[in-house]
Specification:
The complex is a heterodimer of chains A (about 475) and B (about 700). Chain A has about 475 residues and is an alpha/beta fold. In chain A, about 35% of the residues lie in helices and about 15% in strands. Chain A is built from 14 helices and 13 strands. In chain A, a hairpin with a 2-residue loop joins strand 1 and strand 2. In chain A, helix 6 packs across helix 7. Chain B is of the alpha+beta class and about 700 residues long. In chain B, strands 2, 4, 5, 7, 8, 9, 10, 11, 25, 26 and 27 form an eleven-stranded mixed beta sheet that branches. Classes of the chains: A alpha/beta (about 475), B alpha+beta (about 700). At the A-B interface, helix 7 of A face strand 20 of B.
Chain lengths: ~475, ~700
């Protein structure tokens, strides 16, 4: 994994001159090592092999056989590729919806773990996309659990770098590969949904240039055209605050130690401060949460579902008893304990997947928020610059702005029963995209737990309107 | 002018005569007071203070006479010889040329010391919300017994040895026994019923103490004191030096001794005209400019701010607004649990308090009467007293700190976040030092970097054990472990061994030492209920006393509870007494404890463990509390069956088992018992 400190060009000031000098050194050393590295190893070719005729296959979607050609194991980085994960597969249906249709790029990353590129499935969006005549691309990525000879090579930011490298591969070979690389629709769920959001938010951002260059990604754009994100586990460094802000009212429903109860109260009280940095008030976020939940319940009700009184929802009065609703959520699946993401007592094997994501290549689990670092069982410490940089470039919220937003089309769904993160996380993502000028199709899905690729007809209807 | 002169002279004369009078007095150590119990057939120390050079004569009504002369340190001490027990009340007379004191109603019998942390201190009446099973019945219905007595030491810690610790003797009665340690009571009561002679117990505990607090500097093993460097002895000078500076700074302030009232009244509450000066008016004056106070974020504990491990009184103030529509309505204040005590003022009016001891974990919900809700602007001031351990706001159990309408909880105003605070008094051991309320004195104070509280190594020995040096006791019963969670068995083994050595150094080589194994608990530990973060401590406790004469470890594995303060203290006291009767007093008791593993052999895939006290062993195989591991150390649930004094365990997942552990989780209910119903200790064992 690449661990280094990069200078943040957007923040520099004369006050930080010393740091600038320090970081410039690091930067120069890195460039030199890159130069040496380039000389020492011949870069593999990322050009599409035109002799690859693919393999003809059929997938039955619904009851309709869909014929397509499969091009598999296309390695998307030119240096030291981890051939278990760092490749993509492309599936081209015989019946293309247009001469050069959009590319539907699916990531199966979940839990920020490594994910192998697999074939299209009749049960998810890949099969649906094939049957709708889109070119389908499935990209693998390394994750916190991938390792080679005991070195954990997929710790943050490697998962996003891999997906960006895959997107760059598609752009690089746009003239040869079937499908339109200028219209890539990326789709993912959970951590995959978060990585898709990050792909969309940070497209072509210079922060990623150097690490992408070092890993031998193609020298091309990493823009995507549309982002489809189901229940994104994103905005990780602020998720603990949001989680406790949402769930602390029903702490009795989970087993928390005295110390965890205290941490719960502290995290909850810090969330309004974070909201203020996003230009949002508590009242606003509370209103939006209620609005989206009521919309979801109303839609389900109109479709014939019963809304149990246990949910605390009154469609007639358009009111929600939030405590009742949260109990309803917690009954469906026990809530995470406090803190939900950046664990307390990480040193004693209490790490979450996120602590592993930001862990070291030697497999040491690490904290990634100041709060957790200041509240560890073993004592307080300060987060290192390296971790801060890694956290920053994993969060799409840091990149969404009116000036730079390349990906304009967003489709975000979050289940009302989802307790893997909290309601505000996807709402804040939507809000920031909206005020940055994106076209966002956002909704909560009634009674849906942490899940993705549901109501595909709605998704593809939205997509077909876009592509028309 | 003349008037002033004569006034000054008379004041000086008064002071001088007061001093002279005071110095000529004999002041025996607090423990040496009416109602005391002395160990029979022993040499025991009596000591106290008097002016330097004073000769003190000590006479007893069993015809012993001793005398001692004080040196420059004003301390006199003698070692007296006590006779065989009788059921009589004795007297001891202390005489100097200027003074005479008589200690009355002294009993000669069996004297023990009960020591350790709050789990040992936990009284028969409980500490709300925790109670003792059958505690109230014991208090009300057990017959009063004037030959059963307890000395209840005040908690005190110190970086250097001290001569005296406050406290009072309690003669057992239905009206007095409520504050007595439940374990000590049932231990002493069982001894008393069997021995039929007077029994006394010195209850000498320090809540929140680590085991290292109870090790003297010379006995400190190098890898104990593990919160500090590997070599404690190299650090003690630096720590003492730092704390001396803090003590010096502190001693410049007016201070008050925190004393229990004559009937055991709490030192923080007012009794018979004695009240600690909280100086509420000075803080609540409307012209106070709180904006100059320092800021912190609530909820938080002192340990999370620059108050660190200090104890004392801190005021928290927040000014904010409520909606206009709330005016004239009754409000509800949700503050969460406050450690330890609090009194709350809304716009200067007291709206509620929790001032009893040990309410540190209770949720604070106060009603604010509508008559106080006149303005949208409000100022909330909270006086928090941290009397020990961590202090401050523990947060609400459900939701955030808030004010709501009393009749509509959905209308709320959050009051967590930024608060102003000022420390107005600091507690050190059992003294309280009053700080200036008008300036922030802490900013320039030489605050110690070390946690100068109950957890600092040696401080319990200096504060609570040193005053009893060479006091003859038959033995010590001991209960500690909670604050040493995560210690490896080898670490805690060295620590626990040093605890015993320290007690022997102070109380005599011949003392007995019986301890309770750390009790299972769901939430008391930092580790989760199903983790094994206490196994190291538990294993070490049983191994330290294994095979040692007049020592033993009593299993409490069947007394698991949510908090560390389990209600099942009676069997603990009785089991300790059973062990003492057998091992100290030579009673013929066949199984004086629960089963204890003594050896193990492997016969793949079986491990066969041999137990002592194994008669009639039964184990609930359904509960599967045995686990086995192979070379890799990964444990799997094992099936177990009893065969005589052996238990065979095996797991299909472990073909070549090397290790076994029993009832290893933080929260567990051990089912292995012998014919007496006594439970087996929790342990981990490896093939040799």
């Amino acid at each position: 994994m690449i661990t280094f400190v990069l200078y943040d060009s957007t923040k520099h000031s004369t006050k930080k001159m010393n740091r600038l000098i320090k970081y410039t050194y690091v930067y120069i050393i890195l460039l030199m090592s890159l130069a040496l590295y380039s000389c020492s190893k011949e870069a593999g070719s990322l050009k599409w092999d035109t002799t690859n005729k693919g393999e003809h296959r059929t997938l039955t979607v619904g009851e309709v056989p869909v014929k397509y050609t499969a091009y598999e194991k296309l390695i998307y980085v030119s240096r030291n590729a981890d051939t278990t994960y760092q490749y993509l597969n492309i599936y081209v249906p015989n019946n293309l919806r247009e001469e050069n249709p959009p590319i539907f790029l699916r990531t199966y990353c979940g839990g920020y773990m490594a994910s192998k590129a697999k074939g299209p499935s009749a049960n998810d969006a890949t099969g649906y996309a094939l049957s709708e005549g889109y070119v389908v691309c499935i990209a693998g990525n390394r994750g916190w659990n991938s390792s080679i000879n005991g070195t954990y090579n997929g710790r943050a930011p490697e998962p996003i770098l891999d997906l960006k490298a895959a997107v760059r591969y598609l752009h690089y070979n746009d003239s040869i590969i079937p499908g339109d690389a200028n219209r890539i629709i990326a789709d993912g769920t959970s951590a995959g949904g978060a990585l898709v959001a990050l792909l969309g938010a940070s497209a072509n951002h210079s922060d990623y240039d150097l690490p992408l260059k070092i890993m031998g990604a193609a020298d091309s754009s990493d823009e995507i055209w549309a982002a489809v994100s189901y229940c994104p586990i994103t905005n990780l460094e602020n998720s603990d605050m949001a989680y406790e802000w949402q769930f602390c009212a029903i702490n009795e429903s989970r087993e928390l130690s005295e110390r965890q109860l205290l941490l719960s109260g502290q995290l909850a009280s810090q969330f309004p401060g974070y909201l203020a940095t996003q230009g949002v008030t508590e009242a606003q976020i509370d209103f939006w949460i209620r609005k989206h939940i009521l919309n979801a319940a109303k839609k389900a009700y109109d479709e014939g579902q019963t809304i149990s009184p246990k949910t605390g929802i009154s469609l007639a009065d358009t009111t929600i008893d939030m405590t009742a609703l949260l109990h309803y959520v917690a009954e469906a699946q026990p809530l995470k304990t406090t803190p939900a993401f950046d664990a307390y007592n990480v040193a004693n094997k209490h790490a979450t997947f996120e602590n592993k994501l930001f862990g070291s290549v030697q497999n040491k689990d690490q904290n990634f928020t100041e709060f957790a670092a200041h509240n560890q069982l073993e004592g307080n410490y300060e987060l290192g610059d390296d971790i801060k940089w890694r956290v920053r470039i994993m969060n799409p919220m840091n990149y969404i702005c009116k000036k730079n937003l390349k990906c304009k089309h967003w489709y975000i769904r979050y289940g009302t029963l989802d307790r893997d993160t909290s309601y505000p996380i996807s709402i804040l993502l939507k809000h920031k995209l909206f005020i940055s000028g994106a076209d966002v199709n956002f909704a909560f899905q009634w009674d849906e737990p942490h899940n993705g690729d549901y109501r595909l007809n709605e998704l593809f209807e939205w997509l077909s309107k876009l592509t028309r | 002018m003349n008037r002033y002169k004569s006034y000054i002279i008379s004041v000086i004369i008064a002071i001088c005569s007061a001093c002279t009078q005071k110095e000529s007095l004999i002041i025996p150590a607090t423990y040496i007071s009416d109602g005391m119990v002395l160990q029979q057939n022993a040499q025991t120390r009596l000591w106290g203070k008097a002016a330097p050079g004073t000769s003190v004569k000590i006479e007893t009504d069993w015809d012993c006479s001793f005398s001692a002369t004080t040196h420059n340190d004003s301390i006199w001490e003698v070692v007296i010889v006590t006779p065989k027990t009788d059921l009589k009340s004795h007297t001891i007379t202390l005489t100097s040329s200027e003074d005479k004191k008589t200690i009355k109603n002294v009993l000669i019998g069996e004297l023990w010391m009960a020591s350790g942390e709050s789990a040992m201190e936990f009284p028969l009446q409980g500490w709300a919300p925790d109670t003792i099973e059958g505690g109230l019945r014991t208090i009300k219905e057990d017959l009063p017994d004037t030959l059963l007595r307890f000395y209840h030491s005040e908690t005190q810690y110190a970086i250097r040895p001290v001569h005296d610790v406050g406290g009072h003797w309690i003669i057992d009665d239905t009206l007095t026994r409520n504050e007595i340690s439940a374990i000590a009571y049932h231990f002493a009561k069982t001894l008393r019923d069997s021995l039929q002679i007077p029994v006394g117990v010195i209850i000498n505990t320090l809540g929140e103490s680590r085991a290292e607090s109870w090790i003297s500097a010379e006995n400190m093993p190098n890898y104990a004191a593990n919160m500090y460097s590997a070599n404690w002895n190299e650090q003690i000078a630096a720590i003492t030096n730092e704390i001396d500076k803090y003590d010096k700074w502190l001693s410049k302030h007016t201070h008050r001794r925190l004393k229990y009232g004559p009937n055991g009244e709490d030192p923080y509450s007012s009794y018979k005209g004695q009240t600690l000066e909280f100086r509420d008016e000075a803080i609540l004056m409307s012209e106070n400019d709180y904006s100059k106070w320092a800021t912190l974020t609530l909820p938080s504990l002192w340990s999370q701010s620059n108050l660190k491990s200090l104890q004392g009184i801190c005021w928290y103030v927040k000014s904010d607004t409520i909606p206009r529509s709330w005016l004239g309505k009754k409000l509800k204040l949700h503050l969460g649990a406050i450690d330890d005590r609090d009194m709350v003022f809304f716009n200067g009016y007291e709206v509620g308090k929790h001032m009893a001891s040990n309410q540190f974990n209770e949720e604070r919900v106060y009603e604010i009467d509508s008559k106080y809700v006149k303005n949208t602007h409000f100022t909330l001031a909270i006086r928090v007293i941290n009397t020990g351990g961590e202090g401050g706001f523990r947060g609400c159990k459900n939701g955030r700190m808030r004010i709501t309408l009393a009749n509509d909880a959905s209308k709320k105003k959050y009051i967590d976040g930024q608060w102003k605070y000022r420390v107005t008094a600091l507690k050190r051991s059992n003294e309280i030092y009053l700080l200036n309320t008008e300036v922030d004195e802490l900013t320039n104070a030489p605050l110690p970097n070390w946690p100068y509280n109950e957890s600092l190594p040696t401080v319990a020995v200096n504060g609570m054990l040193a005053p009893f040096k060479n006091v003859a006791v038959k033995g010590v019963i001991w209960y500690q472990g909670e604050h040493n969670e995560f210690d490896a068995d080898t670490t805690y083994h060295a620590i626990n061994k040093a605890n015993i050595k320290t007690f022997k150094t102070y109380l005599g080589e011949d003392i007995s030492f019986y301890q309770l194994q750390a009790t299972p608990s769901e939430y008391a530990y930092k580790g989760k209920p199903n983790e094994c973060t206490m196994l190291g401590v538990r294993t070490a406790q049983y191994l330290v006393t294994k095979g040692q004469p007049k020592q033993g470890t009593v299993s409490t594995i069947d007394a698991g509870h949510k908090t560390f303060h389990t209600p099942y203290k009676r069997p603990m006291g009785e089991r300790l007494a059973r062990m003492a009767l057998s091992r100290t007093y030579g009673y013929d008791i066949k199984n004086d404890a629960g089963p204890e593993p003594i050896s193990m052999m492997a016969s793949d895939p079986l491990l066969v463990i041999r137990f002592k006290n194994a008669e009639g062993m039964t184990v609930d195989t359904e509960k599967c509390q045995f686990e086995v591991a192979g070379e890799d150390g990964e444990y799997f649930t094992a099936t177990s069956f009893v065969q005589g004094e052996d238990i065979a365990v095996f797991s299909h997942a472990v073909p070549h088992p090397k290790r076994v552990r029993y009832a290893a989780q933080n929260m567990t209910t051990g089912s292995l018992k012998n014919i007496e119903g006594l439970p087996c200790v929790s342990f981990e064992m490896a093939l040799e």
